[in-house]
Specification:
about 5% strand, Cytochrome Bc1 Complex, Chain D, domain 2, two-stranded antiparallel ribbon, 10 helices, about 240 residues, about 50% helix, mainly alpha, globular, 6 strands, disordered N terminus
Length: about 240
């Protein structure tokens, strides 16, 4: 219990940037699917290629993750682990914290619990709503998180987006430059979904198993309740 509390306290400072502002953007719906292994596998691939360089998942282990996703250890080590870590180690970033502070002004936060601190819907829409804003340090802004302090790392896949109404609140207009990204709009929507779905899994790895067990627990309680009622009726019938 003490370890869990300590981990939570250590993570809280890194999540303060997420709550910096209320979301005024009208977000698209998102429904996570923890049984969609191809989606989760692609989400992990995207995370390891585009996110782990800055954002760790230091409360999640490689082995636990790839076992759930059905990825053999040798394939995971060859194609997904780029830091020389062992399969049983935590998913940490190779970026030194001090260097990160010098480059970005603050160390990029750990994202293990991002979908629990906000929501998977938040992450999904955040990934999709970067647009060009030359007034920002990295030349981009975000509809879900205005004045975001990070570059659009998926711009190569998505392409370049513009907002004709700038950063005005309640303005959802975004225009994608034609053929500016490797993916079509539909392909990028799928990629953003897969990445958000992977983080949805990471935020609570036991969610699906817990839900399955919960069904059996409820059935057991119903059956137990029936027997308890019959026993109670049998006990009291002679007294009355």
């Amino acid at each position: 219990m003490k370890k869990i509390l300590l981990a939570t306290l250590l993570l809280l400072p890194s999540l303060t940037w997420i709550s910096a502002a209320e979301v005024t953007y009208e977000m698209e719906p998102f429904a996570g699917d923890l049984e969609n292994l191809p989606s989760l596998q692609n989400g992990m691939r995207l995370y390891m290629n585009y996110c782990i360089g800055c954002h760790s998942l230091e409360y999640q282990r490689y082995e636990q993750t790839v076992d759930y996703l059905g990825i053999p250890h040798d394939i995971a080590l060859e194609n997904l682990v780029f830091t020389g870590q062992k399969i049983g180690e935590l998913m940490t970033t190779a970026m030194a914290e001090e260097k990160a502070k010098n480059w970005f002004g603050a160390a990029p936060p750990d994202l293990t619990l991002i979908t629990r601190a906000k929501s998977a819907q938040y992450v999904y829409n955040y990934l999709k709503t970067f647009y060009v804003d030359e007034s920002r340090p990295f030349g981009v802004n975000n509809k879900v998180f205005p004045n975001v302090g990070m570059p659009n790392v998926l711009v190569q896949l998505q392409g370049i987006q513009h907002s004709p109404c700038g950063s005005q609140e309640h303005c959802s207009d975004l225009i994608l430059e034609e053929d500016s990204g490797l993916y079509s709009a539909a392909q990028f929507d799928t990629a953003a979904y897969d990445l958000a779905n992977f983080l949805y899994y990471v935020g609570d790895p036991s969610r699906l198993e817990r839900h399955r067990i919960g069904i059996f627990v409820l059935l057991f309680l119903v059956i137990l309740g029936c027997f308890t009622y019959l026993l109670n009726r049998e006990y009291w019938k002679d007294i009355h």
